[in-house]
Amino acid sequence: MKRLFVYCLMFLALFGLLGLTQCTKDKTPTPPEPCDPNKVYFQNDVLPIVSSGCTKSGCHDATSKVEGLNLSNYEGIMKIVKPGNPGNSEIMEVITDSDPNKRMPPAPAPALSQEQIDKISKWISQGALNNYCVADTGACATGTVSYSKDITVILTNCLLCHSGSSPSGGINLSTHAGVKVVGDNGKLYDAVSQNGKAQAMPPSGGKLESCDISKIKSWVDAGCPNN
Ligand code: HEC
Questions:
Q1: Cα(109)–Cα(128) distance, rounded to whole angstroms?
Q2: From CA 41, how far away is CA 64, in angstroms rounded?
Q3: Fewest CB atoms less than 10 Å from the CB: which of 61, 132, 153, 166?
Q4: Are 103 and 90 in contact (CB under 8 A)?
């Protein structure tokens, strides 16, 4: 009898554990992706709207949980969301209720804007994922260009010819002093921008990325610091 009880416990524990891993799996945020203007993201778009409107202290925040609802996180919000089906999602009903006292957030707080409502609806249609995105960092950061962190990395492929005891053209790009010579006399930028005022580098048709060329320009303009 006692043994049976132990088996029962083990059985329950095993299933409990399975259930738990299943749950955590569902809640796991999807990996960050580059922001797609046609998609609505939970972390970027939905959570800020819901938390500004619905999680004021005394409402559906983590401590008050009015009506058992904690709308300060994904799991809580999913209790009133049917993924893929905004029409059947309670959240859509309450944020669009025409009675200002039944509507969420209730009067005197203003209703969510149509744009915010549309965003939430679109997010639900798109599957109500716990997703988030990062803005495309394609912008080239030429603010403060560092010799050690940026320039040496950009010039790595030049060292094949421009280092050692007899560097090509007598130009040694493996030391700051060597790079500064062609930086100061303008040849470095002329060569990599391939503006025709110097031999185009790297030779044989290659060209550095435009961001790298801009970084070199910025560093040369700053006086080729050894930073
Ligand atoms: C395959 C070998 C090779 C590679 C790689 C190479 N260079 Fe050169 N580079 C040369 C040679 C050879 C010369 C000398 C050309 C001459 O004087 O006729 C030269 C000349 C130069 C000059 C002087 C140009 C002039 O007209 O006075 C600069 C500046 C320069 N290279 C920079 C670079 C930079 C920056 C890179 C990397 C982005 C690079 N090179 C990659 C072979 C190379």
A1: 26
A2: 26
A3: 166
A4: no
Separation in Å, CA 115 to CA 22, 45, 47: 34, 11, 14
Ligand 1 atom nearest residue 216's Cα: 35
Structure tokens at 96: 């669009």
pLDDT tens-digit profile, the chain (227 residues): 555 454 544 444 444 444 443 444 345 677 778 788 899 999 999 998 888 766 665 666 666 666 777 788 899 899 999 999 999 999 999 899 998 888 888 878 888 999 999 999 999 999 999 998 887 666 788 888 999 999 999 999 899 999 999 999 999 999 999 999 999 999 999 999 999 999 999 998 899 998 899 999 999 999 999 99
Q: How far is the CA of 132 from the centre of ligand 1 (A)?
A: 45
For ligand 1, the distance from its centroid to the CA atom of residue 169, given in whole angstroms, is 7
Residue minimizing CA distance to atom 33 of ligand 1: 201
Q: Are 152 and 73 in contact (CB under 8 A)?
A: no
Place of tokens 């950061």: 141
Spatial CA neighbour of 177 closest among 198, 150, 147, 157: 147
166: tokens are 């007899």
Give the integer Cα–Cα distance in Å for 183 and 223: 8
CA distance 192 to 178: 16
